[in-house]
């Protein structure tokens, strides 16, 4: 019989694993550093793909709840140049396989699907250590510990579980995003709202870009991309919102004002998001009683696959454990054998996408990739 599963991290991947285990009658506990599900904002929109994220939700028996979250029209996409000219415009005709939802709402349906007490909030991991024979101890910042026969690290980029399996650590990719928000955009920021349109907008040039998405309530959520060393961003005083916004916008001097307004007119202080990645093809030898999923296993530059892969990992691991209830090691080996190439392929695809987005031929290379059936972005 599969032992009680200890999951570190209540992100989408860890919660999907817990839910799929629950569907199969396998008990699990999720330990999360946050003190409550509303402690921090959960990020913006996610496109949930029909070939991985939606399959995970099917395994979790949550497709009806997921469909209720879908924001119609948000699969529309346009590509602009620095002058605001539209180079590519694809409407949302309702047939796309990547419907958009708010990350926080998706996380909530997963939380609501679990038995009370499954998630233990306010448990920040300070260290983990092997005890032998597949057993591991997890120590928390509050001084408490737990010993488990089956430990899963779903704890993201800076996983405290990963060192049990691998010496790899994430490395800076050479690029960062800066996050901004415009609220009630149609009435308060009409020019920017018109530029973004009804879904996502990419305004690109070599080494940089302004990427925005229309969320609920006419909110425009923007990620400004800049290729620069960490030291460059460290020199920006993000505690002074106006000065930081001006500094970031200065890198887009001469761009259309409706685009730079997504930076300078932000209704929230700009937040730097440095991008890190694990080596493409990161893997480890089988270590009894422990494994990883999501960013803890295969962190890559953002390419729309991260959340989907984490959920799919969680569903696949849950299914493997259910299929081998009396042989955990066979279940973990089977899961990892499929997960390693899946993560490597997605990371490699992400590297290629970033070249389209920010390479020497941006934005025209990306436009060509969308319009030429022989090429794929």
SSE map:
Layout: E1 5-8, H1 12-23, E2 28-31, E3 45-47, H2 53-59, H3 63-67, E4 77-80, E5 86-90, E6 100-102, H4 103-112, E7 119-120, E8 125-132, E9 135-140, E10 145-148, E11 151-153, E12 171-182, H5 185-188, H6 190-196, E13 200-205, E14 208-214, E15 220-227, H7 230-234, H8 241-249, H9 257-264, E16 271-277, E17 290-292, H10 295-298, H11 306-323, H12 328-358, H13 364-371
Helix pairs in contact: 1-4, 1-11, 2-11, 6-9, 11-12
Verbal overview:
The chain has 377 residues and is α/β, with parallel strands linked by helices. Helix content is 34%, strand content 24%. The protein contains 13 helices and 17 strands. The strands form 4 sheets. A 7-stranded mixed beta sheet has the order 5-4-13-14-15-12-16, with helices on both faces. Helix 1 (12-23) runs parallel beside helix 11 (306-323), helix 2 packs parallel to helix 11 (306-323) and helix 11 runs antiparallel to helix 12 (328-358). It is globular and about 60 Å long. The mean pLDDT is 95.
Distance between the termini: 44 Å
Helix content: 25-40%
Q: How would the global form be characterised?
A: globular
| Overall mean confidence score, pLDDT | 95
Task: Enumerate the strands of the largest sheet in spatial order, edge to edge or round the barrel.
Answer: 5-4-13-14-15-12-16
Largest sheet properties? 7 strands, mixed
Number of helices: 13
Low-confidence stretches: none
Radius of gyration: 21 Å
Share in β-strands:
15-25%
Structural class: alpha/beta
SSE order: EHEEHHEEEHEEEEEEHHEEEHHHEEHHHH
* Count of extended strands: 17
